[in-house]
Amino acid sequence: MYFGLSEEQSFFQDNVKKYLAEHATIDNIKHITSGDKKNLSAEIHQGLLNLGINGLLIPEEFGGLGLDLLFAAVVSEALGGGVGPTPFIAPYVMAPTAIKHAGSKTQQENYLSKIASNENRFGVGFSEFIGKRNDAGITFSDSTLNGRAMFVLDANDATHLLLADEKGQIFVVDAKSADLEIVKLTTVDKTRQYTEVICKNLEAELLEHSSDSINPINQAIDTGRIMLAADSLGASQTMIDKAVDYAKERKQFGRAIGSFQAVKHMCAEMAADLEPCYALVWHAAHCHDHSPAEARLMACHAKAHVSEMSKGIAKKAIEVHGGMGFTDLLGLHYWFKRIGLNRQILGSPELIREEAYKTQV
Amino acid sequence: MDLEYGPEYQDFTKEVESFCEKYKGLSFTDGSNNPLGSSGGSDGPQMSRSEWQKTLIENGYFARSVPKEYGGYGGEADILKSRIIAAEFSKSNTPGAMGGQGIDMLVPTLLEMGTEEQKQTYIKPTLHGEMIWCQGYSEPNAGSDLASLQTKGDLVGDEWVINGQKIWTSTAQYSQMCFCLVRTEPDAPKHAGISYLLIPMDSSGIEIRPLVDMTLKAGFNEVFFTDVKIPAGNIVGKRGEGWAVANATLGHERGSLAPPDATMNRVNMLMHLMKEETLDGKPLIEHPIYRDRLMQIQGKVLAQQSHALRLLSAKLNPGADVKIGKMIQKLTGTELRHELEGLAIDVMGEIGTLYEDSPHLKNDGTWQFIYMYFLGLIIGGGTSQIQKNIIAERGLGMPKEPKVEEA
Predict the structure, then answer these.
(1) Are B295 and A68 an interchain contact pair (Cβ–Cβ within 8 Å)?
(2) Residues B375 and B266 in one domain
(3) Do A188 and A65 fall into the same domain?
(4) Looking at the structure, do residues A275 and A181 belong to the same domain, yes or no?
């Protein structure tokens, strides 16, 4: 019995962390998010591709590494920790999972091997299946899609998109098609990209098994949620580390503010809230591959619980920094906002807990 | 990640299963007199608690790694087997071994630091449930600041003479013995002036007064010592080493106060209750506000269960970094249990306030009782605030509060 990360997983995670620490410095994050160094983001993405992040979950027969979801979770944790300004969850986790479960043999061969070889990069838009806001939503008829998909993940620079309708049918579309308009959505989190996709008689290919059952799309959403939980886990840990370091250094009333119980108790609460999240996220990722009976419930609770804990940590870590925490100069807000987006994307905690309940009746 | 236990343990699980089957419905001839164990069933074999305790030891289901010469099973410590035993007993509702502070705290302390004679004298009857112990640590003026305790012991000839008062002493009224922290070196710095003494509770000069707590049960006592005389040899470790001796097992108590599996059992029980009880004709579980709160807590408990697996694995595979992971257990476990029991009261509304033998009481009033009882556990064994100091200072390396100069 062993509950934890393997040496390979820890080693791979360390490599991603080191790479980000070197290249996604706070100055570089500022350049990327202010839009003044466009190539920087692509360079960082390429650096991570060189480490092999695109092929983690692709089966070996299609040229990937065929690893467990836990491997992807530790990468996502590292990306959250370093506010990695690069696509990961949609193209390399959700898309391969959806295609693996919903694609025909031919579709799997077509797309999975090209994700592994980096010829194809997928954005993913499943928001309307999870919770349709206002008049958003796409409909499929006569091999074409019409309508709007909101909060499509990583659509920029994608070659293809996976879009879902309210029934959970998944469609592959050409991201460069003239019948498709990609509208940039400006969110508080500028380390990643969110878009609205408008389809007008857009040619679409149905992933064959996604019309038989909602299991494939749920599988893909589960993986996405576990990744978002891992991302918030990493982001929260960084915020705690920064807060603790700051509280040890910053002096007021003649002593380090970390010696005041009002401050140190906030730090202890953050640590106590986050520590069990590691086990929950790892366990959820493990169940996804090895314990299907618990997988859905674990994925729901991992996303909902880590979102709740991270929200509190993001607030407290800023407070420990006092006025400095509130500044752009320090940049702590990148983590705060990343955690904020992770919470809402692919279902906010209340929606997900409702799903968690439904898996038990 | 590998959550399988392996074939050896599958066989062991079957063995424990059939043992539990054999003793299904076991009841105790000495009934519920003993406060430290569960009460058992009704339609199975009968025996005394002490006989049951011996049966468990003979089979290696209790005191597994305690050497045979001291009354244990004499096997190898095996964390997974201990976990399997606990799980199977819980699943089949088989009464477990008696617990209590003698078994949980004194026995490990003696095994580690006792003299050969002390081990021979005390461990066996304690394991067999024939010698019950109470813990004499806290005093009215030494709570969170335990090391400032003032109960004093003077060595006069070949006897310790003890004077002072202890408080929060659970089971003192049933106990034969007390393991007690006493100031024996008044001139030494506070942590270095304490000794760990073993006091027979039938010594003359001991007075026990029950202390009724907010649950309206006398779960604790005050114990007064007036010129109590015990042999000089009733000391564990050397004079002035009592603080270190006590600390060797204090962490053990903290970790075990609120195991997440027990909390999950209560979550499941609450979910069942919420399907049975109705509000405005609709089961409670169908009211989204209550349902969401239940799901929030279920998520927290799942996180703690997973965390417990991580800690279990760290015991099996030394080297894993779980320093903070262990420190948070007492804080998070007791707070969560209190929150859960409180939710049950909220969903029942007015009915949730019923108590004792009231009409309309649900689940024997356990929700209200445990809700209050756990407030006691949040405070006892190092308050939540002390736990946060420990996590911040020892876990995160944050600076201590500056000491106030004494006037």
Answers:
(1) no
(2) yes
(3) no
(4) no
